[in-house]
């Protein structure tokens, strides 16, 4: 599309060429999102990003699920600003601090106790993969077993232990990761259709000649996001919980992207009414895009010795302050009303797409929606169609991410707090784009 055509279709004036020279000169070739979204972003507010060249973008990407409460949420920002103005501690390792005490208190009162969850918390390094690494390490230490069960389509992080339970071959090859005592089982649903993974696991565990030892843990996402937005059914999660309990296996729920309200409830596993042994959280936990990762586990699993698992940035005080404010949002009726209205609007959009028929398939839960442009076509054109839709959206001021095995799924992650008019504008772009591609 040349500039003249772009001006005609978007109604915007031609923009000056953006300067990417310093990024291309100094930054590694590993960079990804900047290639898909070629703009230099300067400011952000709510569900909108503002580029230095004057363009405005609606954000249905939200930092891959890191900004559930939108950019620069006023309520959270005020708390962080006040803390900084008072010279609050910025870095604290795992020392006792006022900021950490406030967060633990707020999290227990707002999230854990109302759900009947009696967990201890461990703060790990700053990213989600750090939480997964700690969870796997704890499971092996507690059980004395080394094996793990993970699922096809899973994504748990990019460090070595997390990669071992991640299904993506490309990511595993880049990390030089082999099996490492991990048995992969088909997820409940996937591009090839449903699968009786619970029955398959039962057969493996009860057959003395299956070649599979009883593992330390089963790790699962209650909604696979990178794998293509596949929510786990409530009955399936309950059956998995029953199987792991019966065989003395720890159940780890990875809530890093699907948690913190993305499904409409704080934990995505809540719809199944189960209690996992271990839960990993990160991404939107801080509520402001500040790095914060946490592992929750049942009290009897706390077999750590002091200093046995550490991390320099496990005490991000600014993140604690922001996360405390995010907890308070969950106690506000206006927050829940806005979230319910946004979920309803997204569900109506999904129903509209489903009613159109054809080979388009939608999946999701709450404020996560996957538009699969490849599952039903059988022509291999799904990834190309998804890429075209993503480019169409970007050219018209909307940022969406692709996921799925081959990038055939357009993933929508609007902020939980998005303004209804902004949500509708973004959905209109997608509606027009789907007709185009």
Summarize the structure.
By secondary structure, the protein is α/β, with parallel strands linked by helices. The chain has 15 helices and 17 strands. It folds into 2 domains: 3-65 and 333-436, Aspartate Aminotransferase, domain 1, CATH 3.90.1150.10; 74-329, 3-Layer(aba) Sandwich (Aspartate Aminotransferase, domain 2), CATH 3.40.640.
Structure description:
There is one protein chain. With 437 residues, the protein is of the alpha/beta class. It has two domains: 3-65 and 333-436, Alpha-Beta Complex (Aspartate Aminotransferase, domain 1); 74-329, Type I PLP-dependent aspartate aminotransferase-like (Major domain) (Aspartate Aminotransferase, domain 2, 3-Layer(aba) Sandwich). The chain is built from 15 helices and 17 strands. Strands 4-12-11-10-7-5-6 form a seven-stranded mixed beta sheet, sandwiched between helices. A four-stranded mixed beta sheet has the order 1-2-3-15. It starts with a helix and ends with a helix. Its cofactor is pyridoxal 5'-phosphate. This is Diaminobutyrate--2-oxoglutarate transaminase. It comes from Streptomyces capoamus.
